[in-house]
Amino acid sequence: MHRTGKAALLKRAARVRLALFDVDGVLTDGRLLLGDRGQEYKAFHTRDGQGLTMLRDGGIEIGIVSGRSSAAVGKRMAELGITLVYQGRLDKLAVLNTILGKRKLDASEVAYVGDDLPDLPVLQRVGLAIAVADAHELVQRHAHMSTMRPGGQGAVREVCELILEARGTLANHYAGYLG
Question: pTM, whole model, 2 decimals?
């Protein structure tokens, strides 16, 4: 659902040079699966991974900002070639400000995808604020758009394709797979 009109949304997305994602509830469905010995399990959707790969290959830097720390997240990000990984960070706005300073970016050049209250300060600052379909209602109200799919079930892919569409390169990514 677009809170901002489609043309305005694409204009915002075309400016994106860095896409940041929360993990629990965005890259996963938000459930925490714990084993008897304290092992933590997370399920990541492969289509989200493909979207992140396409976005990275399209020249957009990608990062994650998570309030929790998880070895599984570190492993999955390494598999996807994502090195901008901030885990165990409750003050996500401070992380954003650090990244903006290091990368010499303006907040208007950043997309952020979140699902819950700790994401609000970042969503209110970036140029493209996106809530997943099953995000908290307050998060959805402060986002420029909400995805059609819930977190952990293809929402990230939607965001990646939106940014690539805005840059005019989505068809090129598809073309590589067509015979």
Answer: 0.96
